Amino acid sequence: TPSLALDAVLETFGKSVNRRPSHADEEIDMKALTRRLGGAHVLLVEDNAINQRVAREILENLGLRVSVADNGEKGVAWVRSGTGYDLVLMDVQMPVMDGYRATREIRADARFKSLPIVAMTANALTGDREACLASGMDDFITKPVILEQLYASLKRWIAPRIQGDEHDGDTLTQRSGSEEGCVAADRESSSKAYEIIDPVKYPGIQTEQALKRMGGNVSLYRELWADFHHAYHNAPTVLRQGLYGGGYPEEARLLVHTIKGVAGNLGAGGLHNAARLLERAIKHNRQAHWEERLKPFEQALQQVLMVTRPLMEEAERAQGERQGRGAVTGSPVDRGDEIIWAQPEGLEKLHRWIKSGNIRALDGVSSLADQLDHERDKAQADLICTSLDGFDFEGAEQHLLALAAALDIVLQPK
After folding, report:
1. Cβ proximity of 353 and 361 under 8 Å
2. How far apart are alpha carbons 99 and 90 in whole angstroms?
């Protein structure tokens, strides 16, 4: 419903919505926002694939066209491509290139001196706000964000698509019969969605809040939990190696930071809090507290994985049924044994994951090694795994490019 879409934007960026407006209020708010901003092109610069899908679903529900770049370096390249974005939503903490540097590089090009760039960050201290503004960002949305702040920011920085729409709701036209039918169908669908996802079955997971972020899209919610299982089931092993075995605490902190954000979006509040405490201990180099923070994190993660396994299995069954019918899915739940990794599409996927620092690349490369025939190629895949184990993503990319060349597959360095 319109209310779900508008509330969902806020909750994706960390706001808890306490008021549920009437249906009349919902339609006026959504209609006004869509009339003013619908059709505007937004570039979302966000490194995490799950957060990307949630944010994209939500922003498109608001009538915005959305492009996604998974790190600051790509965000800069996409802006320079001349696409003509109306606004950039810039995450701050990202691998490869963070939001501060990306903004500075965009501003260095005179063509984009006036391009609105709005920071998205969970750090709400005065110093963090000043750092965002000093880098050239125009505005600062905190996580959590309040309705008035987000609404004002969108209205302030995106030029109205329809002139004369300054008074929200005052110039609304009556809905057509088809529009009313769509609204009614949306409400019915959302009602059924909350019946399907029974919160009693998933203790510790705020399913209703999470579904609001996705406009009641149950299929998407299940797929995201399947993605979560696949991406983070081995996170404790990776974290322990980064903290104790390889000396990569900053990479470990970024992984915890990512899990914290994803867990919050998916409604796993306990895991979100455990990740927050662990991230703080790593950030301040409190090594004496690492273990006492890591164990609760591991327990919370395992609990979440166990509780949400049915959602993952439902997503996999649904995908299997679609594939059995020969359907083409737009956002499949990737599984290593269903992808031919040694083909161009598979290597391109691995390349994207490695460039974005996504630990899913570990599972992908392992599956790739099993699919290779020649010992030379298997050895190259082992080098990729070794680099990833040590959080050496640049080295992993170089080994992947070498393997691609050996297989006569061209991957462009990015």
Report:
1. yes
2. 6
Confidence of residue 339 (pLDDT cuts 50, 70, 90): low
Task: Kindly list the strands in the beta sheet with 117-121, ordered across the sheet, starting from the edge strand earlier in the chain.
Answer: 65-69, 41-45, 87-91, 117-121, 139-142
Residue 325 pLDDT level (bands cut at 50, 70, 90): low
CA distances from 154 to 111, 151, 270, 287 (A): 21, 5, 31, 42
Sign of CA dihedral 262, 210, 322, 187: negative
Q: Exposure of 32 by Cβ count < 10 A (0-12 exposed, 13-18 middle, 19+ buried)?
A: buried
The set of residues, in sequence order, having a beta carbon less than 8 Å from that of 2 and lying 6+ positions away, is 26, 27, 29, 30, 31, 183
Mean pLDDT of 98-106: 96
Token pair, residue 41, equals 């092109």
DSSP codes of every residue in 299-350: HHHHHHHHHTHHHHHHHHHHHHHHHHTTPPPSS----GGGS-TTSHHHHHHH
As given in the structure block, the two tokens for residue 203 are 């203790």
CB 218 within 8 Å of CB 193: yes
